[in-house]
Amino acid sequence: MAALVGLVALLLTPTASAAPAPLPAGQVYVALGDSYTSSPLTGAPAGPPPGCQRSVNNYPHLVAERTGAQLTDVSCSGARTRDLAAAQTVDGGQNPPQYDALGAGTQLVTVGIGGNDIGFGEIVRSCVSASPVGTPCRDRWTEASHDELEARVDALGDRLDDVLAEVHRRAPAARVLLVGYPSVLPAEGPGCYPVVPYTPGDVAYLRGVLGHLNTEIADAAAGGGATYVDTATPTVGHDVCALPGERWIEGLLPTAPAAPVHPNALGAAAMARAVLAALGVPAAA
């Protein structure tokens, strides 16, 4: 089965000889997603409610600016897959069900969701260690042969299948992109304790969790009539351990405007470039 999924993904992945069709200007574009889409604190606020922390520098706005698309951005910090179908209560009000922004006239949809379904914020907090030895994070989340985070990521797959089915139902003419998560942790090596206080063993464990999450998202896209947008590969080397200026994902104590362990403005721009590449839009000169 894994081989079959991989073959389908390969067949659906644009190549140099089968580049995606250029995106016509003025397309009606709806962006759905969580805080990795809304991009808190990276720029001026972009629409109510304030608790969604949408920024004008997030990747949907940058993609719309580059392509001339007519953007409706309903992404919201803290959103889970369930918040696409129901109102989400945040500081300053409620974000309406994100699906409500879709319609028969929608031509482009990006969806960036899933991290909160597996408990991203809880994981970030619980894995902080007062000592650089051992694997306290892995030990917390695993018992005997059961890995709770692995199970959560596996369960996300069915939810993403449902998400894509609903997006296609509400916006049947839309081109749909399912956006993955960037490289939060170094692609190799022990990490950077104590700057980011995760032990080397737990960095390796969490790297695996994030890789599994992106694989699940890519598999859902391959089976659900969507294009997977890989934001992990183009952000390698710009993770939480990179130096300021080279760092696109901020650490627990940001040194550039961003939420902790979230993309800063450089990271949001990198994610926008990945989306534009998936759309066949050339990089700006």
Description:
The chain is an alpha/beta fold and 285 residues long. Helix content is 35%, strand content 12%. It has helices spanning 2-12, 35-38, 59-67, 120-126, 136-141, 148-170, 200-223, 265-279; strands spanning 28-33, 70-73, 88-90, 93-95, 108-112, 142-143, 146-147, 175-179, 227-229. The protein has a five-stranded parallel sheet, with helices on both faces. β6 (142-143) and β7 form a beta hairpin. α3 packs across α8 and α6 packs parallel to α7 (200-223). The longest helix has 24 residues, at 200-223.
Radius of gyration: 18 Å
Q: Shape from CA axes?
A: globular
> Which stretches are poorly predicted, pLDDT < 50 over at least 5 residues?
1-18
Topology order in helix (H) and strand (E) letters = HEHHEEEEHHEEHEHEH
Give, in spatial order, the strands making up the sheet with the most strands.
2-1-5-8-9
Helix tally?
Answer: 8
Helix coverage percent? 25-40%
Overall pLDDT level: 92
Main sheet characteristics: 5 strands, parallel
Please give the number of β-strands.
9
- Approximately how much beta-strand content do the residues carry? 5-15%
Structural class assignment = alpha/beta
Distance between the termini: 43 Å
Topology, please?
Elements: H1 2-12, E1 28-33, H2 35-38, H3 59-67, E2 70-73, E3 88-90, E4 93-95, E5 108-112, H4 120-126, H5 136-141, E6 142-143, E7 146-147, H6 148-170, E8 175-179, H7 200-223, E9 227-229, H8 265-279
Parallel strand pairs: 1-2, 1-5, 5-8, 8-9
Antiparallel strand pairs: 3-4, 6-7
Helix pairs in contact: 1-7, 3-8, 6-7
